[in-house]
Amino acid sequence: MSEIKVLLADRHDLTSAGIRAFIAEKHDLTLINSATSKGAVLKSLAESKPDVLIVDHNIQGFLTLNDLAEAKEISSQTKLLIISSDDDRENINRVLESGINGYVTKECSKQEIVNAIYATAKGQKFFCNKILDILLEKHNQKEDENCEPTNLSKRETEILKLIAKGNSTLKIADKLHLSHHTVNTHRKNILKKLKVKSPTELIIYAINTGLIKPQNTGK
User: Fold this and answer.
1) Which residues are within 8 A (CB) of 111 and not within 5 positions of it... i.e. 6 or more apart?
2) Mean pLDDT estimate for the chain
3) Kind of pairing, strands 79-84 and 52-55?
4) What 3-state DSSP class applies to 29?
5) Is this model's pTM higher than 0.85 or not?
6) What string of DSSP letters covers 80-116?
């Protein structure tokens, strides 16, 4: 990806200025707009189809989870990166379950935020340490309710590792020399066996079972 188009949606002047400065330092990152209203965000999405939408879900009267869902409908190729100061674990979990690509906090370093932008643009999952801890905590609570081990086949385990590392179905099919229909079937079987519903939960499973290391998700 030679140029990454970024749309920033944040009403906090200080945060917005900082992120704009980070983006300006990178020759392959282009800020197409810094929107401060829902209308401006949705209009920019429709007109520019950015690679990454950076947004804070926790600004009163700004963008809701429903708005983020609408944003994905307007520009399906745009990846969502949350940069927020929200400390409410229930709120954070709701956002994570909505299918966003990455989530970092406003306390993260410049380098971590820039890394998150690049990873998100590639379609990879990226979570900072704080968010990863929340994900692990939630997943471990679920495991306590049902401690029976889940047996995946060798092929399912191989595909799970690739999914957890951010590979798309087509990329997995190419790597393993399979049809995308076969990969989709394996993906459905994995979700059913593990009783999970999202790629995020698959990542946590892969970390807990040692299939991937935490740094593969941005930690």
Assistant:
1) none
2) 83
3) parallel
4) strand
5) no
6) EEEEE----HHHHHHHHHTT-SEEEETTS-HHHHHHH
pLDDT at res. 22: 94
Give the 3-state secondary structure of the chain.
CCCEEEEEECCCHHHHHHHHHHHHCCCCEEEEEEECCHHHHHHHHHHHCCCEEEECCCCCCCCCHHHHHHHHHHCCCCEEEEEECCCCHHHHHHHHHCCCCEEEECCCCHHHHHHHHHHHHCCCCEECHHHHHHHHHHHHHHHHHCCCCCCCCHHHHHHHHHHHCCCCHHHHHHHHCCCHHHHHHHHHHHHHHHCCCCHHHHHHHHHHCCCCCHHHHCC
The superfamily CATH assigns to domain 4-127 is Response regulator (3.40.50.2300)
CATH class, domain 137-217, is mainly alpha
CATH 1.10.10.10 domain locations along the chain = 137-217
Q: How many CB atoms lie within 10 A of CB 160?
A: 24
- Of all helices (H) and strands (E), which one includes residue 41? helix 38-48
Give the chain's length: 219
pLDDT in tens, 30-89: 999 999 888 999 999 999 999 999 998 888 788 888 888 899 899 999 999 999 888 788
Residue 4 and residue 117 in contact, taking contact as beta carbons nearer than 8 Å: yes
Best-predicted range by mean pLDDT (7-11, 51-55, 175-179, 210-214): 51-55
